[in-house]
Amino acid sequence: MFTIEHEFDATVVTLIDDAAAHRQDDVTITAFEDCVVIEQADPRSDEVQKVTLSLAQLADLTAALNLPEGVYRRKP
Questions:
Q1: Residue-wise pLDDT tens for the chain (76 aa)?
Q2: Using an 8 Å Cβ cutoff, are 71 and 64 in contact?
Q3: pTM exceeding the 0.90 threshold for the entire prediction
Q4: Using CA atoms, how far apart are residues 57 and 55, in angstroms rounded to an integer?
Q5: CB-CB neighbours of 48 under 10 Å
Q6: Which of 38, 41, 44, 60: CA 20 to 30 A from 26?
Q7: Element housing 58 (H / E)
Q8: Cβ-based burial of 5 (10 A; exposed 0-12, middle 13-18, buried ≥19)
């Protein structure tokens, strides 16, 4: 399950791991104009872990999901 919310400066998608046998904490993806931030609570440290991707990194990740193993360079 997931939710989508449109805020003033970002779109926020929350992924809810409701079908997993060992449920993970929700993942929140916030898409800004110039980057995407992925956050998930870490129950071991009781802190939110955050990863920020540039739009180029996000485009690389999107392309990588549909490619076989190897090294690639996206054409601009």
A1: 889 899 999 999 998 887 666 778 899 999 999 999 999 999 889 999 999 999 999 999 988 888 888 888 877 6
A2: no
A3: no
A4: 5
A5: 11
A6: 60
A7: helix 55-64
A8: exposed
Task: Give the residue extent of every domain in the chain.
Answer: 2-64
DSSP state of 38: E
Residue type, 56: A
Three-state SS for 62? helix
Distance CA 26, CA 64 (A): 23
* Tokens standing for residue 19: 């079908």
